[in-house]
Amino acid sequence: MNKKRAQRRLAIRPAGTPSLRATTLVVAIAALINVMAAPAAAREIQTPNSRVVLDLPDAYAPASRFSGFVNRQVGSSVVILDFPVAAYAELRKQFTAANLAKRGIENVVKGSLSRSDDHIYMRARQVAGGRTFAKFFAIIKNDAAAALITFNVPEAEVGRTGLSQAQVEDILVRARLADQRANSRDLFKLGYNGQLKLAGRVFGTNKLYNLTGTLPDKPFEGAARQDPFFFIAPSHSPVRIVNLEAFARKAVLSLRFAKNITVRSATALKIDGRDAIALVAHGEEREGGVLTGIYQVVVPLADGNYFRMIGVAPLPKFAIWQPEFEKMARSFTRLPAP
């Protein structure tokens, strides 16, 4: 690393432990995979479905199931979540050590990068899949958008076959947001969506359908929950699903926009030629208290990844919308990987 890059390294400033309410915006910080060091072979690259541009080593390739990059040789990932710029203030308020701890992310150290713009930076560690990972979070913004960038490097490989802390920080110092998203890549399609319209992409490869066809700043909160919506998301990393129903129950109970969730039924079905499971659950909107019906389908794939589909409607209307959600789920088809 040359002298100029070295001068841009992070100056860590330890911070006290903030006390904040549970986050609803920061979801899906993915499970982790690794990277070859060799930053000398870096190149600027923008991942599909995102505005984020990073100067990454050649060992990183765009991920096929989420917005970001992976190095499959050693098991590192960079997970990118795009947000409207209006979400930045809420992210700053909610992205805390206390909230990260609720997701099993520990040893959080708050710092700042040698950037001239307003940003958020934290380091942490997490045990997942029997391995311990070093995690590096940066939230950046411009006048049009904001983004959360998460580096995940196996802790035992930091500075060896994986990037060092200084190398990750140097990449984050130079991270930027392009004027436009890179070309979108669809992972799936629906043959039926009834009255619901595609509102847009959430976190890159996920899609939200609702009555208006307009993507709210907070898709799963407040007024957006007064009307039905349908959400489709691929997994960010492979998992070992031993019992599909138990996995699906745990997933629906972990939904961040609802509380007091109870599972009412579980039904096996075929989606896209694969065995899947559908759960019906009732809950209560976390912010507004609206009683809510939830229809969740989990479709496991052969490689350990999965797709998750979630239909939500106010409880008085749920009996009308549940059959529509099922039709949408049954029309789901995966598209060939690029």
Number of strand elements: 20
Helix/strand/pairing class, anyone?
A: alpha+beta
User: C-alpha Rg, in Å?
Assistant: 20 Å
- Contiguous helical run count: 6
Shape: globular
pLDDT average, as an integer?
A: 80
How would you characterize the largest beta sheet? 8 strands, antiparallel
Strand arrangement in the largest pleated sheet: 1-7-8-9-10-6-5-4
Order of helices and strands: HEEEEEEHHEEEEHEEEEEHEEEEHE
Uncertain segments are: 1-41
As a percent range, the share of strand residues is 35-45%
| Cα end-to-end separation | 34 Å
Helix content: 10-25%
Write the layout of secondary structure elements.
Elements: H1 3-6, E1 11-12, E2 43-46, E3 52-56, E4 61-62, E5 68-70, E6 77-84, H2 88-94, H3 97-101, E7 105-112, E8 120-128, E9 131-141, E10 145-154, H4 165-174, E11 176-177, E12 188-190, E13 197-202, E14 206-210, E15 229-234, H5 244-253, E16 258-271, E17 274-285, E18 291-300, E19 306-314, H6 315-330, E20 332-334
Antiparallel strand pairs: 1-7, 2-3, 3-11, 4-5, 5-6, 6-10, 7-8, 8-9, 9-10, 12-20, 13-14, 14-15, 15-19, 16-17, 17-18, 18-19
Your description of this structure?
- The chain is an alpha+beta fold and 338 residues long.
- 15% of the residues lie in helices and 39% in strands.
- It has an eight-stranded antiparallel beta sheet with strand order 1-7-8-9-10-6-5-4, with helices on both faces. It has a seven-stranded antiparallel beta sheet with strand order 13-14-15-19-18-17-16, sandwiched between helices. It has a three-stranded antiparallel beta sheet with strand order 2-3-11.
- The protein is globular and about 55 Å long.
- The two termini are 34 Å apart.
- The N terminus is likely disordered.
